[in-house]
Amino acid sequence: MTAHRRRWATGVALAVLALLTGCSDDESPSSVASKAASAAESLGSRAGEALESATAEAGRRLDEVQNGVDAKDEITLGTPATDGDGRTTVEVTADNTADSTKSFAVQVDFEDPGGNLLDTVVVTVSDVPAGKSAKATARSTHALSGEVKAKVERALRY
After folding, report:
1. Cα–Cα distance, 81 to 150 (Å, whole number)
2. CA angle at 110 for the pair 105 and 114, rounded to the nearest 5°
3. 56-63 long-range contacts, Cβ below 8 Å, gap at least 24?
4. Is the entire prediction scored with pTM above 0.70?
5. What is the per-residue pLDDT across 57-82, written as a single tens digit (0 to 9) for each?
6. Is residue 123 within 8 Å of 155, Cβ to Cβ?
7. Secondary structure letter of residue 86 according to DSSP
8. For the chain, percent helix, then strand, then coil, each to nearest 5?
9. Alpha-carbon dihedral angle through residues 119, 81, 92, 53, given to the nearest 10 degrees
10. How far is CA 119 from each of CA 20, 42, 124, 134, rounded to the nearest angstrom?
11. CA distances from 90 to 6, 7, 127, 143, 148 (A)
């Protein structure tokens, strides 16, 4: 489990512990703590599974692109921000260096300062004219807390 997930699971465990302690008169503190730790581990495991699923889905979406060429060097990202729903967003700019209109599929990874993956999304920048740039916004699938960095993991021009 990554440090981010451990912190999240610990917070959940403490919240569960507080709830269970207030609700149970006949249980020992150690049994309540054990139940809380088990619940937190289960939640942490599900969070990890969701992240693995999102990563696999991003890979599948990029693998479906027909006649795509590596375009990672043609993509720049803005500074991550938080929208009104608490989700992290980042502006994606695609520079079309080809001699005809192209579209781009870009996998953006959201990471904590330690490089731990928090979320991954695929954004499409469609129909960019030859020699021009176009923008799209990548948005995390859920609210991310703390400092979040964004990086281009993969990018295809097609």
Report:
1. 10
2. 140
3. 58/107, 58/120, 58/121, 58/122, 58/153, 59/107, 61/105, 61/122, 62/105, 62/107, 62/122, 62/154, 62/156
4. no
5. 777 777 777 788 999 999 999 999 99
6. no
7. S
8. 35, 35, 25
9. 10
10. 31, 19, 17, 24
11. 26, 25, 20, 13, 10
Q: Is 152 helix (H, G, I), strand (E, B) or coil?
A: strand
Q: Dihedral, CA atoms, 36, 42, 44, 45, nearest 10 degrees?
A: 160
Alpha carbons 69 and 82: distance in angstroms, whole number: 31
Q: Which position has the token pair 């610990």?
A: 10
Q: What is the pLDDT of residues 108-157, one digit of tens each?
A: 999 999 999 999 999 999 999 999 999 999 999 999 999 999 999 999 99
The rounded Cα 95 to chain-centroid distance in angstroms is 24
What is the Cβ-side half-sphere exposure of residue 53, based on CA atoms within 13 angstroms? Answer: 7
- Residue-wise DSSP of 121-149: EEEEEEEEPTT-EEEEEEEEEEE--S--E
